[in-house]
Design brief:
Blueprint lengths: L7 E5 L10 H9 L3 E4 L22 H6 L9 H15 L5 E6 L3 H10 L6 E5 L8 H4 L10 H8 L10 E2 L9 H11 L5 H10 L3 E2 L20 E6 L7 H14 L6 E5 L5 H4 L1 H11 L6
Parallel strand pairs: 1-2, 1-3, 3-4, 4-7, 7-8
Antiparallel strand pairs: 5-6
Helix pairs in contact: 1-11, 3-4, 6-7
Amino acid sequence: MRTTAHPTFVFVPGGSSNARAWGPLQNELALLGHRSYAVDLPGHGDRADHPAAYYRQPQDLAALAAAASPMRGVTLQDNVRHVVDVLHRLAPSGPLVLAGHSFGGLTVTAVANAVPELLDRVVYLSAICLSDLSMITEEWDVLDDNMLDAAAVRITVPDTADQGVVRLNWRAAHADPVLFAQLKAAVMADSTDHQFRMLLDSMDPDENYAVLEEGAVARAARWGAVPHTFVRLTDDLSIPPAVQDHMIRKADELTPENPFDVRTLASSHVGYFSRPHLFAALLADLVPEVPR
């Protein structure tokens, strides 16, 4: 039995991110009277054994390249099991809204496929939403002029592919003003330099792109039964609006009887960190008013 009609927002981070990045948004939601829980996916966050060389200054790049990854062997189903366990523990307290950002959209979709009965809504904050297997196997018919790819090349640590991970040295930007400006423009151009430094320090180095697999493709009878919202970010230079709109169109083709509820914010890719009050107000508007 649910003890309250107030929803809990459950947040799934994007690539190289973790629960810490949701703190500013959670604080703003609390001020509006909403509960939330931020997930650390397996191999991410405070409990993951990240390479010590990532944090040492000056950095030893050879040691960073050789260090073992906490993401090695982590699968999409590991993510799903972890999030579903969290949802089961939260469900007795009230409705659940599962929200993901960027790469975290893959896990959101897979969870909605697995346990649609636990979810009152799923929300994609400029997040990856796959609704057809061809979106994994084929090129997308859309111009993707994002700025992040070129910046990511500059911070990619070589020789980690044998571990099945991509390792990004986000902290290198602290010592390189040009790189710092490039990453900030791509990821969070609407922040101050101080805010972007805080975001950089919260980032995990490793991500496992093996989660980009068939289980992350929306199933009409499962995912499609859950109300879903896509939050378009018009100033996003990591997943540009044209790519966001393409994902919305494809998903609506899968479930025309239950299309995306589309909301729009003038925000960068990680604007929920730099301007959390805007995102809190939007999320609060998704749930009905509950008498106190």
